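Re-run with default settings, no changes from the original entry. Doing this only to confirm the output is reproducible before filing.
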Amino acid sequence: MTQKELSFAIFCIENIAEYLGLNGAEVYRLLTTNSRMLDEYIVENYDVLHTQGKEYIVNDIVEYMKEVGLLT
């Protein structure tokens, strides 16, 4: 993971946490321990995702989290 990807991952985790009313550690756990979504979706799609606005990024990731059963 590059420094840019790491910064982006942190940005995603913190903004998703704020959106869901969770703390960053809980979201990190969902994206890494409960799934491989951090590596396989967020970092994997960095090139596309990082060009979008915050609202789009958060909504996209939250919707995907719902699709894969991480959120109800």
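The chain has five helices and no strands. The two ends are 29 Å apart (CA to CA).
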